[in-house]
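Support reply, case 0932

Customer input (verbatim):
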Amino acid sequence: MAKKTIVHIAQSAGGVAEYLYMFLKNFKDDNYEHIMVISQDYKGQLDRFKPYTSNIYIVPMVREVELKNDIKAILKVRKILKQIKPDIVYLHSSKAGAIGRIALAFNFKTKILYNAHGWYFNAQISDKKRKIFALIEKILAIKTDKIINISKSEYESALKYKIAPKKKMCIIENGIDFTKFENNDKYREETRKKYHIENNEIVIGVVGRLTEQKDPMTMIKAFELVYKENKNTRLMYVGSGELEKNVKQYAKEKNILDKIIITGWVNNVEQYIPAFDIAVLPSKWEGFGLVLIEYMACDKPIIATNVGGIKDIIENEVNGILIPKESPEKLKYAIEKILKRETKYSIIGERYKLIMKKYDIRTVVNNHKTIIERMG
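Our regenerated output:
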C-alpha cells in the first residue's frame, strides 16, 4: 500500500517548532510520510527535522499582514502543493493557516487539518481587530475538514465566536516528550556554572520568546522590585525576541543589568530549567502554555498569569500560583511568597505527576492518528 503524504505548513517558530519536532519524532507510522513547508525562521533548526521528514521546503512567510509578501507566499505554497499532491495538509498557526487554505482554495481532494496553536483573536488587540480576525477564521473554516483546539479555553473561544460547527472541531491538548527530562538534575550545576551563578543565588526563570505576548517587561519590572529586598536573586530568560533590547535597556537604567541572563534561543530547555528555583510564565494571552508542563517535569514551583489555556493547567495554590496579567506588583508578591515559603500548595509530588500523565506527547500523537485515519 502506498504511503499517505502529510504536508505540515508553519510560519511561526518558537513553541510551534518545538510542538512539530516532538510530533514528528513520535509519530512513528510507516503508512505515512511527512513533508514540511516552513518559513525562514526555521533555517537554524532544519537538521533536527530531517530524520523525520522526506523533504523540507523553505517559503518566506512573515507573521504580520504584508499583502505583497503574502501573495508571493500563497503562490509558492500553491505550486509546491500541486507538485506534491498530498493526502492531508496540516496547518500550524494562524498565518500558515491562512496561506495554506487560500493556496488550496480550488483543491477539493486534499484534506485540511488546522491548528491555530492559540487563536489570534484572543490576543491583546482592539475589538475591531478581534472581530476582523474572528471573521477571517470563520470564512477560512469553511475550507477546513477538522480544526484542533489546544485547550478547553481555546475550544470555548471558537464556539463563542462561531468559528465552525462543533462537529468540525475537537480538543487535543498539547504534550511534551517526558523522556528528555529524565535524570536531568545533573544539568542544574552545569548550567549555573556556565552562567556564573553562585550556589546561594536564587534564579527566577522564564522560558519563552521576548515578545509582547510573553510580556517580558512585566517580568523585568517585577524582578527589579524583588531584587531591592532580595539581593541574592537573578533573572534568567531562556529565549530571545524583539523586546530583548527593551528589557536590557530597562535593566541598565535600574542598575540590574548584571543580574539578568538572556540565553538566546535554545533547543534543549530541559538542560536550562533545572537551574531555576522559581519558574514563571507572565503571558498576556496564551492558548495553552506548554512550558508549564516542562516546569512541572523539572519539579519547579510555578507562577503564571490567569489567562487563556493556563487556567486549564494551573489551579491557584494547588499546583501553582495564578496572578493577573501585566501586574509587576502581584508577580513580585507571588515570588516573595515562594521565597518566604508562605504558599500553601505542594510544589512537588502527586499533583504534578497526575497532570503530567495527561500531557504526554504520545497521547497527543495517538489522538491525531485517530483523526487522520477518519479523514481518510
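We compared this against your earlier run and they match. Two observations from our side: DSSP finds 14 helices and 13 strands in the chain. The domain at 178-358 is CATH 3.40.50.2000 (Rossmann fold). Please reopen the case if you see a mismatch on your end.
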